[in-house]
Amino acid sequence: MSILSTRKAEKIDSLAEGGTSLAMDALRRTFRSPVAILGLVIVGLFVILAIISPFIAPKDPYRPYPELKAELTPSNIPGPMPGFLLGSDQNGYDFFSRLLVGAQQTLFVGVFATLIGVAVGMIIGGLAGAFGGWVDSVLMRLTDIMLSIPSLLLAISIAALLPGSQWTVIIAVAMIGVPVFARLLRGAMIAQRSSDHVLAATALGVKRKTIVFRHMLPNSIGPVIVQATLTLATAIIDAAALSFLGLGDSDWRRAEWGLMLGNAQELLSVKPSLAFFPAIAIIIVALGFTLLGESMRESLDPKNRR
Amino acid sequence: MALLDVRDLSVVFKRKGTRPFTAVDGVSFSVEPGQTVGLVGESGSGKSVTSLAIMGLLPKRGAEIGGSVTFSDTELLTLSDKQLRDRRGRDLGMVFQDPLSSLNPVITIGLQITEVLERHRGMTRKEARVEAAELLDRVGLPDPQRRIDEYPHQLSGGMRQRVLIAIALACRPKLLIADEPTTALDVTIQAQILSLLSELVSETDTALIMITHDLGVVAGLCDDVNVMYGGRIVERAQRHDLFERSRHPYTHGLLQSIPRLNAPRGEPLTPIRGSVSDNIEWEQGCAFAPRCPNATDVCWSEPPELKADDGRMLRCHNPVAIGDAVTEGAL
Ligand SMILES: Nc1ncnc2c1ncn2[C@@H]1O[C@H](COP(=O)(O)OP(=O)(O)OP(=O)(O)O)[C@@H](O)[C@H]1O
Ligand code: SF4
Ligand SMILES: [Mg+2]
């Protein structure tokens, strides 16, 4: 390193002072970009909506209303009426309330599908990265097999094998993420294994367990968090796709956007908004998570640091 | 009885699809308790590989290690991984070149010191924290009570290297290996770190292996100097003898390529011509022959042996004549 660049580093150091951890630093960098802020706003509104929607929904999303039922025929689904902002759905339920509450169910599916994918993937990837050798080879062949199956096909196969329930959707979608998270964590851990600070810790006689859990894992987690954010977007879309294919939740009453979209597909000519609104909601939310994830990825990339 | 005795150490890297590469070739030297020994040579001469071999830090697969490394009567090369881990950090410490990347970025520097104290000195977290603050104070880190909870990226390069030295010396090892500890630092900081190192090792009677490509560092610090070229030691002498007159053409060239304040005006610096990539195989002759001003036919056909000569060890067919070898005042 030349004298000049060392000088520069010293100066930047003093600027960084007062900051806390590297993660905080990365967060600060992330939210300098307007795209990240847009993503955060979308995700934030979605999460708030998911939490408060049962309390602010004007009507009960889980029961038919006689006012709506009265006008409901196979070829006519009532549109907006006083008290029912978006009219009825195909069963005489309040569509607007169902759309609001749908945020909660959709977030639930997305979050749990992602969390299970992250957890299982991290166990596999963590073991492979920590032990290397044959453990690594076996586990990585396993993920290769999972990756070789197109993701939706994998989810469809699992969903088809299990009874149709919400957890089936969650597990099927989670499995798509498992090999991705496994590879990601394993790759990051392998890079950590040959890093200078792990070598330095080894030179100090630090125990293997400590090296893995304190030195390798925390430094490998960044890309996993980014990928999890991006996966939330695809998980919501994949769950919707399963529902659309009739492989999703068998409880048709549940207000979940994917399910609502799936159940609306035969009614496109009768009342297109029944499909349109859930679809738009899914797209916006998926976009929010993607924007957020991509900006985080950018700011965590060492090449873009500072 | 030497503290560390390296005998005939060799390291051959073997990787599928490439030729075996001998990075270290029959290196022998020893370090007495409290002594400071220099290991000098250009980039790629095998200094770091030698130190990693001593510490048992070379990758298990792909590196074939020969010879012996004895540390206070224990052969290190045959120790199990667990036995080595118990000794590293406690008996043998190491300071690496790049202070930023040698520290874990996601945990505080305090934790990186206490972890070693807890591991080797059986301290509780509380005791270790007190000791850590003292250590940081001793290596001259300003405001250690506050700094102890900071992350590596909040410190300057010089402060980071002080922290690394504090960590390496936390368990009072008998031997410290410093691999180019100042190369990544600002020149003014370099001098501070070097004097800190020499102060600490003499205070605690720690033996030090100083790895550097900078003869200036050696001049101020080392008792004995080993000059390496192409994985072999080519000249070994006491510091005073080496700087009074360097007999090996490579050492001589190194000294002549250092700018001198008292040089006659206009005298050009004479860098060693060529680069390490010109080397020939040691099996064939002298690896330095393509770059050596003294090379003769025998150099190209017969590998020189390391022999005692003029109060030092020399590996050369045609050493620099004693009259020409004077480099007094080079530093
Ligand atoms: N893990 C490895 N696998 C293969 N070759 C290696 C490995 N580590 C080092 N080498 C090779 O061994 C030779 C000696 O390397 P070493 O790092 O010891 O040089 P050095 O004297 O420390 O140089 P520098 O001043 O650049 O640090 C180099 O040519 C290097 O490419
Ligand atoms: S052996 Fe020959 S080539 Fe090698 S250093 Fe001596 S004189 Fe030069
Ligand atoms: Mg080196």
From TrEMBL, chain A:
Transmembrane segments: 35-57, 107-135, 142-161, 167-185, 224-247, 274-293
Bilayer topology annotation: Multi-pass membrane protein
Annotated localization: Cell membrane
ABC transmembrane type-1 domain segment(s): 103-293
CDD domains: TM_PBP2
Signal peptide coordinates: none
Keywords (A to Z) from UniProt: Cell membrane, Membrane, Transmembrane, Transmembrane helix, Transport
SUPFAM superfamilies cross-referenced by the UniProt entry: MetI-like (SSF161098)
InterPro entries: BP-dependent_transpt_permease, MetI-like, MetI-like_sf, OppC_N
Matching Pfam families: BPD_transp_1, OppC_N
Domain of life: Bacteria
Record family assignment: Belongs to the binding-protein-dependent transport system permease family.
Name the record gives this protein: ABC transporter permease subunit
Automatic annotation (TrEMBL), chain B:
Chief location bin: membrane
Membrane topology: Peripheral membrane protein
Signal peptide location: none
Protein name listed in UniProt: ABC transporter ATP-binding protein
UniProt keyword annotation of Transport present: yes
UniProt keyword list: ATP-binding, Cell membrane, Membrane, Nucleotide-binding, Transport
The organism's place on the tree of life at top rank: Bacteria
Family membership: Belongs to the ABC transporter superfamily.
Listed NCBIfam families: oligo_HPY
Ranges in coiled-coil conformation: none
An example Gene Ontology molecular-function term: ATP binding
Compartments, as annotated in UniProt: Cell membrane
PANTHER family: DIPEPTIDE TRANSPORT ATP-BINDING PROTEIN DPPD, OLIGOPEPTIDE TRANSPORT ATP-BINDING PROTEIN APPD
